[in-house]
Structures are given as structure tokens and as C-alpha cells.
Amino acid sequence: MKLVTVIGSGQMGNGICHVFAQSGFDVHMMDINQGALDKAIATIGKNMDRQVAKGTLTEDTKAEALGRIKTYTDMAAAVAHADLVVEAATENIDLKLNIFRQLDEHCPENCILASNTSSISITRIAAVTKRPGKVIGMHFMNPVPVMKLVEIINGYATDAAVTKTVYELSEKLGKVPCVANDYPGFVANRILMPMINEAIISLNEGVAGVQEIDTIMKLGMAHPMGPLQLADFIGLDTCLSIMNVLHNGFGNPKYAPSPLLVNMVQAGYLGVKTGEGFYKYTPGSKDLVVSSRFATMTW
Ligand code: CAA
Q: Does residue 18 have an active-site annotation?
């Protein structure tokens, strides 16, 4: 396993390139937009600077790691010699199925095809390829360079040897892999998203305000972020799409997304990436300011 191609250069894609390059792999980062690729390289450089400042990476190893990443806008060229592809495109089923059809056509026969999907069925993705045994879920957590977990998802037809390879590979990245089977939301989001959704329902019912809900969960349960801040960090569109996968997949009303979450997504208040969700974000500021749309809790 020497050459890894990562499809998508967004928040997750650039983090995945970062950890592979830092662990000595050659990385091809592919996106349809050269501007997005340039921005991703700059983000990786900045995130590596944090590690240099902490003394966990030297300037030389940073330069070597960055030198191992090549950018591509042409998929066939990006994957022509890949040993592993990790797809980290937008969480949209039709887009992902289309990407996997193309990967199957252009990748070498033995190449493993992994998806970083947070909830779309690996079995369904694998079924559009002629190599379902070589298709697997490799679900990294955000921010990828910091979070230790890789949730590995076995599709219905994934070969045991492929799971073993991806498990050992994740360990080489300094991560802790855990294997789950392919059911809606796998493990991470089946448990995380209903908690976030319940926090949004509690806010909408006036049980408590934004700050109160987040502080209760931060200080009471030792979570690093409260659920509403975490929703903003993940992206409310992603949260909604995962709730819809759970709701449709299990057919149980307990997974119905909060109407407030639906409204916020429709209005384009998606959290950090659009500058406002439950909190309002000012570029360059670390202050956490509750959005003026959510009146202060009175008691
Ligand atoms: N790259 C490299 N280092 C980074 C980084 C990045 N992108 N982001 C943060 N860091 C480092 C910082 O340099 C800092 O390092 P030190 O403590 O060693 O100095 C450390 O991480 C903490 O960062 P900050 O001081 O900036 O801020 P913080 O203490 O608030 O931590 C956080 C930030 C790590 C994001 C923390 O708040 C956290 O763990 N939040 C929860 C994250 C989480 O739950 N992620 C999972 C989301 S779900 C998901 O991803 C999957 C899905 O399918 C939806």
C-alpha cells in the first residue's frame, strides 16, 4: 500500500490527505475544482503549522509530507495507479454512486475502494461496482488529524482480507480502528445524531436555551463541545441528511428530524461553514456567540 487517492478536498478530504501524507504515503488529492484543491493544500499547511508549533512535527517533516501530495482534477489520472481510494465527496447518494461507477472503471483491479460516508449504505455503493468485495467504509471523524477513531464499515459483501488490510492501515495512520456492520448510521451516527436532534427538539420546545443545553452536556457529560455547537461544527445539512437516513432506514418515528433543523437547513443556516447556525461565527474570532435568533433563556 503506497499510493492513496482521496476524492474530494473539503473539510474531511483534506484532513484525510493530511494524515496519509504525514504517515509516509504518496497522496493524490482529486477534486473537480482546482481552486478547492489549492485551498485544501493551504488548509493542510496551516493545520500542520499547529503541529509544528506544538513540537509534534518538524518543519522538515511538514515539507516532506506536503511534497507527497499531488493534486488532480481528472479522476482517471488521479486513480490510475492507486492502491487505495478514499472517497470523501459531498454526502449525496447519487453523487457517490456515480463516483464509484467511475472509480470501478478507472482504478487498478486490486485497488480497494473506501468511502468516508457518514451514513450511506456501503452495500448499496458496492453494488454499483464489479468488485463489491473490495468496497468498504472508512469513516474518519472531524477534525481528522486530531480524532483517533476510524469506524470501518463492512458492506454485505466486503472480503475479510480487505477489512484486515484497512484495519492495519488505519493503525499505521496512528488511529484506533473499530469495525461495524452496514446498518443505517453504522454506530457513530446512529448514537450521535439522535442526541443532537434531541438537543434541537429541546431548544425548539423551550426546555432550555442554546448556551444552557450545550453547557449541561459539556460540563455534565464531559463532552468537548455541546450538541448544538457540534451540530454547527459538523454542518446542519449533514446532520439532517443523516437523520433522514436513520428515519428512512429504520422507519421509526423516533428518528424524525426536528422541524427546526429542517427549517434552518432550508434557510441556509448551516453552522460554521455559512457563518451562522445556533451560534454566529466571525472569521478570525474564537468567541462563541449565540445567534440572535435564539432569544436568551428567561427563568
Ligand atoms: N488539525 C490539526 N490540529 C488541530 C486541528 C486540525 N484541523 N483542529 C484542532 N487541532 C488541535 C489544536 O492544535 C489543539 O492542539 P493542542 O491541544 O495540543 O494544543 C487541539 O487540537 C485542540 O484545539 P483547539 O485548542 O483549537 O480547540 P478545542 O480545545 O476546542 O478542541 C476540538 C477542538 C478538537 C474540535 C474539540 O472541540 C473536539 O474534540 N470537539 C468534538 C469533535 C467531535 O466530536 N468530532 C466528531 C464529529 S462527528 C464526525 O466527524 C463524523 C460524522 O459523521 C458527522
A: no
